[in-house]
Amino acid sequence: MQTWIIITVAAAFLQNIRSAMQKHLKGVMGTTGATFVRFGYGLPFALLYLAILWRGFDRPLPVPDGHFFLWAVVGGFAQIAATFLLVHLFSFRNFAVGTAYSRTEPAQAALFGLIFLGETASRGTLIAIAISVVGVMIISVARTPLSVRSLVTSVFTRTAGVGLLSGTFFGLSAVSYRSASLALAPSLPEPDFVMQASFTLGFVILLQTVTMLAWILVREPEELKRVITAWRPSLLVGFAGASASFGWFMAMTLQQAAIVKVVAQVEMLFTFASAVFIFREWINRLEVIGCLLIVLGVVMLLVI
Length: 304
What we know:
single chain, mainly alpha, 0% strand
């Protein structure tokens, strides 16, 4: 099995943990605070990973250029916007619809990859992406009164718009991170996807932390108290988030962002595995269909 696949599956598992904890935090702090936690509490872990590679394993640091800074900044701000919008969806009564549309991220990443990086995808790859996206969207609304048909017709609602915009920013950030990481390779004695990913993550998460901290101090200073008070669960969110992002960055350095994001949909399978085997919950027919479509899409990608 290819290295990027193993890394992606591990990152998806960690993201599942982070998402569950982050949703819990939305109940004790506002959208801005719950968004900041992912970056602020993840920063120490991101810098620790970089320090271990540099000092512990004596791997040389890359020298960033203008191309790196451009894409890293674009990706960093796009991810902030995407995360804010996704967390904001939890405040909507029918947030499942928005969440479903936010899962169009792989398809949008494929489009951005074509526009900005000139990456092309075969017909089989595009079909696999479409199948997995449909599967995730079905799962997202499987436990609501909505039908798949009504999901499609709801595209012009505000909730769907927020979800689609979230997916757009996530797709843009994924392609930007891949471009930034690849830009570091020429400055190294030889390409080192682990160091390239770690350096990119360290810079991006530092940028995101400083930016959001400044925003909170100026606009919502009371949120900082809530963020500090909830430091225990926030620390877990930070660790899981930074570790998952490290995995995403490594995988996207090795493979196209859109393809990585399709395989990353196995996160939904981890969610259902926890529900069935740990919490003894039942999953309905639509959820089963959605899971099967995700598996089909991933398998198609791996055999193409």
